[in-house]
Amino acid sequence: PWGEGRDGNGNDWSYIIPLLKPGMQLNLIRPRVDEQGTLFPELIILEPDYLVDISQIARCMDNFSDSPLVYLLHMIEPSAESEAIMLGNLAGQLLDETLHTQDEERTYNTSARRFFEQNALSLLSIPPSACFHANAQNQLQNIRKAIRQDLPTQLGSFDATKVMVEPSFFSSMLGLQGRMDMLQLDHRVLVEQKSGSGAFVAGDTDPSTPKPQRPHYVQLLLYMALLRYNYRKQYEQNNHQLHAFLLYSKYTHPLLGLSFAPELLFHAFRLRNQLVWHQFRLAEGGFNILGTLTPEQLNRNGVQNRLWKDFQRPKIEQLLAPIRQANPTEKAYYYRMLTFIAREHQLSKLGNQQKENSSFSSIWIDSLEEKLSAGNIYHKLRLESPAEGAEGQVEQVVLRFHRKELNDMSNFRPGDIVILYSDEPDTLPDACNTMVFRCSIVSITPEKITLNLRKTQVDAFVFLRHKDYYWAVEHDFFESSYTALYRGMHAFLSAPKERRDLLMAARRPKVDESLSIKGEYGSFNELSLRVRQAREL
Fold first, then answer.
1. Fewer CB under 10 Å: which end of the chain, C or N?
2. Residue 147 and residue 317: Cα distance in Å, rounded?
3. Closest by alpha carbon to 199, among 209, 191, 189, 186?
4. Residue 69 and residue 66: Cα distance in Å, rounded?
């Protein structure tokens, strides 16, 4: 009993009471007991095995509302394509290249050519405007300034070869997972890049220096919390200080150092818990909320500015309109299939009681013996490549099995997406206790396994610093594969009526009976004729 629900720091925990029901798992983080015997945890984590990506929590926040319903709209909206998004992707590439080529100036033309080769289809659908290259070159200049001048000045020293780009972390304690843009290997420097604008502040007279947007600040805070809680002993025993920066590469003074903000962090974990509850509700058939949702219900902050009236409100109306306009059969099919996808999504993350070793959470729930029995882990691998003395960037890693028979019973195959991580000798492999590399399997032989990194690393030192460690490989999970399914269902509902009728079998598919086949196909004559005459299916 907490009186009005507030703890000793003034945080109001009463919000969590409506979210709870028997059987739910809670993590109470660093609890303390007061003189009256009341337990005060620093954090309460609802269903911690359901890892929420930190970027999803940030996407619950907008100027008009902080709510899981905001994220629900992002789940079903079409994949966005715009020049701003392409510029952001190019800016990410430019940051990586700046880290990769400290002593060698890569020209912008070389970088742009590489980007255009790898993004040809997107660039064809949205051809860049005349100012695209000028904006990108400005981003490159600001990125180089941030990495080569601002960071060394603010930190006293900075070695770009001692960083990891896009490291992934899992925390079954906090119920979070995240992929940071750049992290120094000793966990002292964290950088998250944003290619767009900072927050709008009325009366701001310094256009060269950004102000942090709240969603960006929350994202950085959660990365900081993930590091501080996962590596608390390291920070406390070694007196580590974490320097966290937002890099707004659009600005002349792009680097924005931010400190810890406990109140905003509490709000972020509140959103995390509410989002988990909401995702569970969707898997139980809660998508019908979309049928009655309105922009006014979403606008909890009551904003009435031009951004809301001319852009945000019409966009929400356009997204929800196909649901209101659908006939009863289409609507029932839409809700039922979304629920099916949500249940599959939940099972892929948490598994079920009938089937063991069936979910992403088995990475930290199952014992090593259970993983080996199911063929879900390679462990005690030794690093073969990059070899000792190697320098420069790394795209591929080769590891040796310590016994040839270890891969006989595994269920890994070339092309699988996997995670790679190191563990100290005499410790059990634990993906929640270290940085994780996300990879795909190139080949497996009785002696070794070859992996392609999903993100090229700046320097071989990222791996060679742990050359005497064991390494482990486990199966990965793509959250985005389910995003595509949610969006696909909304694309069905947004299609023209003729297309919806075809997909729902409300009309016969078109055929051209004037066409005939040439030649003789025996028992396949009728089937060949139907294929020849088909105009739609």
1. N
2. 42
3. 209
4. 8
Beta bridge pairs of residue 12:
6
Instruction: Name 507's Cβ contacts closer than 8 Å, sequence gap at least 6.
Output: 498, 501
- With a cut of 80, say whether residue 475 has pLDDT above it: yes
Q: How many CB atoms lie within 10 A of CB 410?
A: 16
User: Which of 75-84, 102-111, 513-522 has the lowest average pLDDT?
Assistant: 102-111
Q: State the Cα–Cα distance between residues 238 and 431, nearest whole angstrom.
A: 23
pLDDT of residue 351: 85
Copy the structure tokens of residue 377: 């882990």
pLDDT in tens, 170-225: 999 999 999 999 999 989 999 999 999 999 887 777 889 999 999 999 999 999 99
Judge whether 215 and 162 are in contact, CB under 8 Å: no
Please name which of 256, 244, 251 lies closest in space to residue 143, comparing C-alpha atoms: 251
- Which of these, 217, 178, 224, 229, lies nearest to 28 by C-alpha position? 229
Q: What is the mean pLDDT of residues 51-70?
A: 96
Query: Residue 162: helix, strand or coil by DSSP?
Result: helix
168 CB neighbour count, 10 Å cutoff: 19
Task: Give the C-alpha separation, 175 to 9, whole Å.
Answer: 22
| Cα distances (angstroms) measured from residue 49 to each of 24, 219, 241, 374 | 11, 20, 29, 20
- pLDDT at position 27 is 96
Q: How far apart, in Å, do the first and last CA atoms of the chain sit?
A: 63
Phi, psi of 473 (to 5 degrees): -125, 130
Q: Which amino acid is at 439?
A: C
Strand bridging mode 437-444 / 417-423 = antiparallel
Coil, strand, or helix at residue 509? coil
Cα distance between residue 168 and residue 154, in whole Å: 26
Residue 295: asked if its preceding bond is cis (omega within 30°), the reply is: no
* Phi and psi based region of residue 426 (left: phi greater than 0; alpha: psi -120 to 50; beta: remaining): left
H/E segment holding residue 325: helix 313-325
Other CB atoms within 10 A of residue 519 CB: 6
CA-CA distance, 343 to 331, in Å (whole number)?
18
Sign of CA dihedral 425, 428, 433, 436: positive
Task: For 268-305, give one letter per residue: b (16+ CB within 10 A) or e.
Answer: bbbbbbbbbbbbbebbeebbeebeebebeebbeeeeee
